[in-house]
Specification:
This protein has 168 residues and is mostly helical. It has one domain. Helix content is 89%, strand content 5%. The chain has 2 helices and 2 strands; from the N terminus they run E-E-H-H. A two-stranded antiparallel sheet has the order 1-2. Helix 1 packs across helix 2.
Length: 168
């Protein structure tokens, strides 16, 4: 056994042997265990990094999908509003068209009624003329006391009525 005395620390052969065994063990462990341990830690770090990146990608994808959903929802709202506006426009056009047709029909009915009233008035005037002429012939025949030719007398009365109408 070797003893070295350097003051407070006494070095003997056992300590040196233990130190040499420790250094040899350290060299063997660094070659055998350190590499796989570092590889395992590196693989774990890579898995964690990939998990973080996958989470970030999923978050970005979710945000992109949400933006796409919002865009499609807005597009659908605009399309629905367009359909509502178009339906309102078509309804207004149809209402105006129906009003115009109803007005045309009313105007036609009024024109037809006016025409019929004019024709009826003309018939009434002709009937009244005929009655007045007959009454005048009858009255003239009674006043004169003899029968006049009804045809000539009617012509005279018709002419008199026309002259009276022209004056009025």
């Amino acid at each position: 056994m070797i003893y070295l005395d350097a003051g407070l620390l006494t070095i003997n052969g056992t300590l040196i042997a233990q130190l040499l065994v420790f250094l040899a063990m350290l060299a063997v462990l660094s070659r055998v265990a350190w590499g796989p341990l570092v590889k395992m830690l590196e693989a774990r770090r890579t898995r964690i990094q990939e998990g973080i990146e996958a989470t970030d990608r999923a978050k970005r994808d979710r945000e992109a999908a949400q933006q796409e959903y919002q865009a499609k929802l807005e597009e659908a709202r605009q399309e629905a509003q367009k359909m509502v506006d178009q339906a309102q426009h078509m309804g207004e056009s149809l209402r105006q068209e129906l009003e115009q047709k109803a007005k045309q029909q009313a105007d036609q009915i009024i024109a037809q009624a006016k025409k019929e009233i004019g024709q009826e008035r003309e018939r009434a005037i002709q009937g009244l003329r005929a009655e007045v002429a007959d009454l005048a012939v009858l009255a003239a025949g009674r006043v004169i006391g003899e029968t006049l030719d009804a045809k000539k007398h009617r012509q005279l009365i018709d002419r008199a009525i026309e002259e009276a109408e022209l004056r009025a």
